[in-house]
Specification:
With 392 residues, the chain is of the alpha/beta class. The chain has 2 domains: 3-27 and 292-389, Aspartate Aminotransferase, domain 1 (Alpha-Beta Complex); 32-287, Aspartate Aminotransferase, domain 2 (3-Layer(aba) Sandwich). It has helices spanning 3-6, 20-23, 28-43, 45-49, 55-70, 83-91, 110-123, 139-149, 173-181, 201-204, 262-268, 276-279, 281-290, 293-315, 340-351, 376-389, and strands spanning 16-17, 77-80, 101-105, 126-130, 154-160, 185-190, 208-212, 224-228, 330-335, 353-354, 357-360, 363-369.
Length: 392
């Protein structure tokens, strides 16, 4: 990646930052646009937050810009603070009964595992987790593992699109189609998907999907979305009842109090809050287009995969998947058994390298993220440091 591109980010130049996958990083022009929205809010907060003075239109502008990237319409997506918040809205809106099953895998994000555990405690439903075979080399193996977990009690299929601990791209299209054929709700955690791999929500034909804009799309922290297919939107209840909710919002053809659909108004119009991160999604999309981010992402993918291949050659450990199931810019690299906390902390203290190192099941993993501000010198520094610390 060019030094000119790296200078467009605000990251500490003394740190080798190889952890974009956790919280993202916001480019300077996007960050400045975010600050402009915040200053406008503080200059006249009453006017800024007044639905009659442009607030509704500004929120819709972001929905329209994002919907254009996601293959859907602005009335099907609503801004939330992160993907976990969006998925909580769905999980706590679904009408589940004792014995109903939520089918998922052993690769899911810990916060969502807790979400479903909470829902089960409240409703009497149960989580059923299937083991995805590793290394993942064929779609048929993934599909068979999930299908084997389905039963007449399955009400919800919950899957990550790109997994957090293992950085795998699950081939979810055919399994979503089969779940829908069986009348099972499909709920997808797309936290790492927007801006990382192509996403067409309507072609995917998913029921519920949440994704972050602050990760690979590079919008400010606090910008994410929830998608709900139109015929299911009356099922959704906000976690907080505020000004956008009305008692008759479930009626066919109902309109929200601020002119949007009840789905949008009940989730979007939440009283006093700072919506500036959501409004800045437009600038993040503009930045990506202006900098030919598809080409940047291709270079990032090549560097990430080459670094992972080098580490595999050094360690002799097999990758967790075939290349087609590996997230392009984020790779879970297996490393020999170690104290992962010590390795992580020493990479920071002795090498100024920021990268997650952890144990997942029987695997020890260093999860590498490569974004446009990274370069080969930085990944070479990581490989060198891991060789030293792991005595390879």
């Amino acid at each position: 990646m060019s030094e000119n591109l790296a200078r467009q980010f605000l990251l500490d130049e003394t740190v080798v930052f190889l952890n974009h996958g956790s919280y993202g990083a916001c480019p300077r022009p996007v960050f400045e646009a975010w600050q402009s929205w915040q200053r406008l809010l503080e200059s006249q907060p009453v006017a800024f937050l007044d639905p009659k003075r442009g607030y509704v239109e500004r929120m819709r502008n972001s929905r329209e810009a994002l919907a254009g990237e996601l293959g859907t319409s602005a009335d099907n997506v609503v801004g939330v603070v992160n993907a976990t918040a969006g998925l909580n809205i769905v999980a706590q809106s679904l009408k589940l009964a004792p014995g109903d099953e939520i089918l998922t895998t052993d690769h899911e994000y810990a916060a969502l595992e807790k979400t479903w555990a909470y829902v089960c405690r409240r409703t009497g439903a149960v989580v059923k987790s299937v083991t995805v075979p590793l290394p993942l080399t064929r779609e048929v193996d993934f599909t068979a593992a999930v299908l084997d977990g389905m039963s007449e009690r399955t009400r919800v299929l919950f899957l990550s699109h790109i997994t957090s601990p293992t950085a795998l791209v699950f081939p979810i299209e055919s399994i979503i189609a089969e779940a829908k054929r069986r009348g099972i709700w499909t709920v997808i955690d797309g936290a790492h998907t927007p801006g990382h791999i192509p996403l067409d929500l309507e072609a995917l034909d998913v029921d519920f999907y949440a994704g972050n804009c602050h990760k690979w799309m590079m919008a400010p922290k606090g910008s994410a979305f929830l998608y709900v297919r139109p015929d299911l939107q009356t099922m959704i209840d906000p976690l907080v009842i505020s000004h956008g909710w009305t008692a008759d919002n479930k009626k066919p053809g109902a309109v929200g109090p601020f002119g949007n659909t009840p789905f949008i108004d009940s989730l979007e119009m939440q009283g006093t809050r700072d919506p500036s991160a959501w409004m800045t999604v437009v600038e993040a999309i503009r930045f990506r287009h202006a900098n030919d981010w598809n080409e940047v992402a291709r270079r990032c993918r090549d560097l990430a995969q080459a670094t992972a291949a080098e580490m595999a050659a050094v360690t002799g450990l097999r990758p967790l998947s075939a290349p087609q199931f590996c997230a392009p810019q984020m790779v879970a690299m297996p490393i020999p058994p170690c104290d992962p906390e010590w390795v992580h902390d020493t990479l920071i203290s002795d090498y100024n390298i920021e990268i997650p190192v952890f144990r997942w099941k029987d695997h020890h993993i260093a999860r590498l993220s490569v974004q446009g501000y990274n370069n080969q010198k930085q990944t070479e520094a990581l490989v060198h440091a891991l060789k030293v610390l792991l005595k390879l």
